[in-house]
Amino acid sequence: MIYFAHRGASSLAVQNTLRAFEKARELGARHYELDVHLTADGQLAVHHDYSLLDTAGVDVDIASLTAEELKKIPLKNRFSNEFVFVPLLKEVLQVVSPNLELLNIEIKNEGNRYPEIEKKLFLCLQEYPQILSKTLFSSFDYETLVRLRRLSENVRIGLLTRTGDVSQALLLKAESLHLNFSRLTPSLIQSCKEHHLLLYCYTVNEIPLAQQLATQGVDGIFTDCLELFQ
Predict the structure, then answer these.
(1) pLDDT recorded at residue 122
(2) Strands 176-180, 156-160: parallel, antiparallel or unpaired by DSSP?
(3) 206 DSSP 8-state letter
(4) What distances in angstroms separate CA 211 from CA 24, 121, 206, 216, one per listed residue?
(5) What are the residue ranges spanned by the domains of the chain?
(6) pLDDT along the chain (230 residues), means of 10
(7) Which of 3, 127, 203, 224 is the most exposed place for a label (fewest CB within 10 A)?
(8) b vs e for 94-131, b when ≥16 Cβ sit within 10 Å of the residue's Cβ?
(9) How much is the pLDDT for 164?
């Protein structure tokens, strides 16, 4: 069973921040998950939502800010008095690269909100060949993954799905299917095994549930509570 640090060690630090990924690395993480967006000046930023409303209390979209402007908006921090900010992907890569086995990058791009984000992301990772080979790209937006596949036959893809559609994963030549654990069914597990698709479930923060999923044949989980599984 693989344990992905979901947005870093997000039960111990503000999710998707450098501190969250540093905490995960300190816990011995070798598998990480994060989300990427594009800033107004074309920089790849690591954040879950399109807006900063929930995380910073500022109702503004990342797409409308430059990277420099983004760095001036502190995120809410319930863990300490430390000021933390939305990091750029290149900053996070420096943190997670030691002992990295697998990095899952979720591309936030429903409706092609960020035209050419796939190309910018792929070009960015090409600057880090030792990380690119260990990177698994995922998205809920199917066309985003189609465009990514067109960029490279070798890029690793995991299909994020709310329906458990194995056929789409096969068309993408994906290596894995990602879905909420509550949508798991015996037939889906069997279909993944038959087609040699790895099955990763989110978000699992309890040991008994993780054990149950492992028994059912799930290959990995995304967890906020990495400390429970190290």
Answers:
(1) 97
(2) parallel
(3) -
(4) 21, 34, 9, 9
(5) 2-39+87-228
(6) 98 98 98 98 98 98 98 98 98 97 98 97 97 98 98 97 92 98 96 97 98 98 96
(7) 127
(8) ebbeeebebbbbbbbbeeeebeebbebbbebbeebeeb
(9) 84
Alpha-carbon gap, residue 81 to 106, rounded angstroms: 29
Name the phi and psi angles at 178, rounded to 5.
-120, 130
Among all chains, which residue has been given the structure tokens 């465009």? 147
d(CA 125, CA 100): 14
Q: Tell me the pTM.
A: 0.97
Burial 39-61 (b: 16+ CB within 10 A, else e): beeebbbbbbeeebeebbeeeee
Catalytic residues: 6, 48
d(CA 202, CA 183): 10
| CATH entry 3.10.20.30 includes domain 2-39+87-228 | no
Strand ranges in the chain using DSSP code E only, listed in sequence order:
2-6, 31-38, 44-46, 102-107, 135-139, 156-160, 176-180, 198-202, 220-223
